[in-house]
Amino acid sequence: MGRAPSPIPxxxxxxxxxxFPPALQAAGPVHRAVGSSVLLPGLxxxxxxxxxxxxxxxxxxxxxxxxxxxxxxxxxIHAAYAGRALFHPSxxxxxxxxxxxxxxxxxxxxxxxxxxxxxxxxxYPVSRPQLWASSLVAGATGRLVxxxxxxxxxxxxxxxxxxxxxxxxxxxxxxxxxxxxxSPATRSDCGSYSCNASNGIGWQESSLEVAIEGLSRRLKxxxxxxxxxVVFAVVSAWGLIIPVCQSQKLRIRGELWRWLSCYTxxxxxxxxxxxxxxxxxxxxxxxxxxxVILPEITLSYxxxxxxxxxxxxxxxxxxxxHLKSKKAHRTMGYAAPGAVLAVLxxxxxxxxxxxxxxxxxxxxxxxxxxxVASTAAVVALPLLVGGGGGGGGGGGGGGGGGGGGGGGGGGGGGGxxxxxxxxxx
Length: 425
Description:
Largest sheet: 6 strands, mixed
Strand content: 15-25%
Strand order of the largest sheet: 1-9-8-3-4-5
Protein name: Ig-like domain-containing protein
Mean pLDDT: 81
Transmembrane segments: 225-245, 257-284, 290-314, 334-355
Organism: Ficedula albicollis (Collared flycatcher)
Number of domains: 3
Number of helices: 7
Domain Ig-like: 129-211
Order of helices and strands: EEEEEEEEEEEEEEEEEHHHHHHH
Oligomer: single chain
Radius of gyration: 46 Å
Region (Disordered): 394-425
Distance between the termini: 172 Å
């Protein structure tokens, strides 16, 4: 029986490995609030993968989260994620619970042939913006400020009466505050402004009703001074008219007449000072103007003259008898009435100018009713008391004083004079 031929040995070669480089995919960023849960999607072909691995990537390298080898075996979860990482084998997704800002970063899920990277941002919600305005006066530069105290702010948008505002009027003070510039502020800027702050997980909005003041604080003082000057001038005019309108029997005479004349001249002097100060404040705010400078010069002159008349009547009334010049008599006699007229004209001009300036804003005009009433009541009280006591003074008789009071037609009651001289006021 013949022997079978022995097999020829064939050398064995290891089959080459087919290269399957991972197909790296990048998903869009996912935003979540601090303390919430996030579900990170798995690979599309997870059913064909024998193992799945989740990792967290940051600057120091990959940190393993879990490894799943397929089948019914539970995944091996890293200790740092135990209790808050849940894996779904059916689709390979990962549920992270109670995420914090430190969880922000890139998460990578790797299968047999592909991997997927997901960017996660964990944010604090933005707090309600604080919206406030600087002093807003017509013609001046103003600004509205929107500040967010908590949470990362990605964008801040502005609206006026529901309509978006041009970005050119907005600037950033910091990463969490924005400024809307009103330069210059005008009446058209009045309205409701809203500030909307947002990030990847939500938004908050605040609104503010904005009113543009027509008058600055300096112009408000100008208005008050001009109004008080008018009250003083009107009461002074009343004091000048009272002696002229009284009958001979009731005419104020003697010492009472001297005191009331001094008081009236003093009021005129104060009115000139107040009106002059109001004009200075107006020019300080609006700039020099011929329409204000000329009355200022006149008021300065009348202030000096009425002051001299008032002090002379009060302390040295006999000095009027030494005035021999008719020009001096006329100057002293018509100073108070002329000053009253000058104050009324100048103050009314200032009040009208202030009102026109107020029209540039949208607030109500300043109410001066209480100021007028209280000033008039206080200033007119001495004249009311003096006028009521005039009859008694006449009965007691200062005949010379009565004669002096009756002789001065144009300015009766403005200043005393000896019996044999014409009254100066």
